Amino acid sequence: MPTLGRMSFSIAERARLVQSLLSVGPDAPTLCEGWTAHHLAAHLLIRERKLLATAGMFVPPLSGITDRAMASQLGRPFEDVVQEWGRGPRGAWKLIDKKVNVAEHFVHHEDVRRPQGMEARGFSTPEIAELYAALRTASAAFGQSSAVVELWPHGQLPIYAGDRHAAERVQIHGDVGELLLYTFGRPVLKLDFVGNEELVRRRSV
Question: What pTM does this model have?
Answer without folding.
Answer: 0.91
